[in-house]
Specification:
Helix 15 packs antiparallel against helix 16 and helix 21 crosses helix 22. The longest helix has 20 residues. This protein has four domains: 101 residues; 42 residues, no CATH class; 138 residues, Rossmann fold; 119 residues, 3-Layer(aba) Sandwich (Rossmann fold), CATH 3.40.50. The strands form two sheets. It has a four-stranded parallel beta sheet, sandwiched between helices. The chain is an alpha/beta fold. It contains 23 helices and seven strands.
Amino acid sequence: MSEGSLGAPVRHPIPWQDPEFLDAEKLDAELRRQFDICHGCRRCFNLCDSFPRLFDLIDGSETGELDTVASQDFKSVVDACTLCDICFLIKCPYVPPHEFNIDFPHLMLRARAAEAQKTGVPFGVKQVTQTDRNGKLAGTAPGLANWASDCGNHLTRMVMEGVLDVHRDAVLPKFHGDTFVDRATSTPTLTVDAPAAGRKAVLYATCFANYNNPEIGIAAQAILAKNGVATEVVYPRCCGMPQLEQGDIAAVAEAAKATAADLVPWIEKGYDVIALVPSCALMLKFEWPLIVPDDDNVKTLSRATADITEYIVDIARNEGLAEGLGALDGGVTVHIACHSRAQNMGQKGAEMLRLIPDTEVTVIERCSGHGGSWGIMKDTFEVGLKVGKPVARQVAKAANSYVVSECPLARDHILQGIERLGETVDGVSSAQHPVQLLAKAYGL
């Protein structure tokens, strides 16, 4: 038996339809098997709150070992996981192909699926994670929706906390009535003699870029047109990441099959597929093929998908970017999101921003603590701020004029963490995503 694996991490398909997957006794045995290995290693002690909770349970038990920890106490460990995948990808020496076969995030997913089957998804979380429904409803009266969800509206936020369990102090994304799909009907002029002319790409809008920040999509489409890439915007539905976080794997499988069937015809016509938010890119590229491994459309889509920053860097490396980039004064701090790192593609957001001339780029590669819906709920919001405190300190110390993250939600969470530290970063641009800054450098 080897001490640690030197091979590239390998993930197995998730056997969520196997009756043993949700069997309580078999799940408990697997939790204990993997937790005992984690206890003997402890390399992930500082990644998130799951591991400190696990180790505190063991250290405070009668024997100081896992055998005297009650199974019902494992829930606190499961609840603290954000499914960021970082422990699997960069920390754990015992992931497959190692014989210990450790996959902590997918073990937490299995535990959540079992809990969801037994007790159901909590009402508040279930409502918050209906992103398409919420985006369409809020889009009919975005001013009212944004007024009600603003942290300064203490009355409505208290009601939201009581009814939906959304923490009253958590910054929530804004909504737009004019979605990215709506705005993309007027496409920017294509530069036909640009270096990347001839490329064609479908922009998978994602629920966030479509309903919450269409400027991300507009910026991406303008940059690609500047570089000769013809684009179409397609958004049939959410990728299912919010449901995956709650263990509703069946809902994710349904979304994967339907969306892949919608996008594959574009691939067959020679289009690449670009996801505008890294969590969605991770789903299309890696999670969907593990959930529905026998679906040919999902396999095809996985091979054809790129994150937006990954795609632009690929243009820069292969054809070269179109001229016209100008410097951004004041420097940029870019946070490399966990779901970007989990794609194992390198620091593409930082690589892209370094293409801007005479612009200082500060890179932070550590978890912000947001974790999607996890980071806004009453029971986990403060934990998320604690996990993200080192990132907030680094951003405040850098004091750059631009603060962006490949995960737009993480970016706002970081700024809120800076406020909690009593720090300020004066004059920070409203841009959330690195692609918005590249568009600004182009003057688009």
